[in-house]
Amino acid sequence: MSENQPERLSQADYEVLANFRFALRQFTAFSTRAAQAAGLPPQQHQALLAIKGHAEAEAMTIGVLAERLLIAPQTATELVNRLAEAGLAERVADPHDRRRHALALSAKAEALLNSMTLVHLRELQQLAPSLVELLQVLDRAD
Amino acid sequence: MSENQPERLSQADYEVLANFRFALRQFTAFSTRAAQAAGLPPQQHQALLAIKGHAEAEAMTIGVLAERLLIAPQTATELVNRLAEAGLAERVADPHDRRRHALALSAKAEALLNSMTLVHLRELQQLAPSLVELLQVLDRAD
DNA sequence: CCGATTATATCGTATTACGATATAATACAA
DNA sequence: TTGTATTATATCGTAATACGATATAATCGG
Question: In angstroms, what separates the C-alpha of A18 from chain B's closest C-alpha?
Answer without folding.
Answer: 5
